[in-house]
Every structure is written in structure tokens, then in C-alpha cells.
Amino acid sequence: MSHDTPQGHASEHDGPDALPDIDETTADGETNLREDAYWHENLRLLGVLMAIWFACSFGAGILFREWLDQFMLGGYPLGFWFAQQGSIYIFIALIFFYVVRMKQIEHKYDLDD
Fold first, then answer.
1. pLDDT, tens digit, for every residue of 19-40?
2. C-alpha neighbours within 13 Å on the C-beta side of residue 79
3. Beta partners for 92?
4. 68 SS3 class
5. Do 45 and 93 meet the contact criterion of CB atoms below 8 Å apart?
6. CB-count exposure of residue 106 (10 Å: 0-12, 13-18, 19+)
7. Is the pTM higher than 0.70?
8. Alpha helices in 55-86 (DSSP H)
């Protein structure tokens, strides 16, 4: 008795956990590649936006505060303003940018509603 099975099919001798081989040219493979590209672009966007927020909140509000304090914004030193209000405004702006950009990415990968 031979254990050869057609490609892509698991035999009963392979056990209950055996999965069939997936050919990337199938519709499921194309879907997986598209979803992988979508998530890669989504995570890349999140990484960039989180880096911007970190630079504004920690960098401008803490690390470079003394240097930024030589400039004034609304009667307050700029470093103080970033630490108290600026990073919050930037975070809210980044949320709106994320929403707009994610709608574009979802449309690009045909995952929009």
C-alpha cells in the first residue's frame, strides 16, 4: 500500500493535524497574499504614526524642552506647550490622519465595506 497522495491532499495516514499543501496560485493563496500586503501596510503606517507621536510627546516635551523653551507659542514656552497640550493635539491629528489613510488602504486592497 503506497502512502502517495495527490498534491494538496492529506491522507488518512498523515494524522488529524495534517494540513494540505496550499498552492499560492489558488484563489485562497491570492487572498492570503493580498491580506498579508494589507496588514504589512497597516502596521507600517502604525509604526510611522507612533514614531511621530513619540518624537512629539517625549522628544519635544521632555528631551528638547529646554531648547524649545526659547520660543514662545501663545505666551507660553514651546517646550512647556508641547508637554502640556501639543502632544495631545498631535495625537488627535494623527488619529484623524490614520482614519483617512486606512480608508484609502482598505479601498486599495478591496477590503472596504
1. 444 444 455 667 788 889 999 9
2. 11
3. none
4. helix
5. no
6. middle
7. no
8. 65-68, 78-81
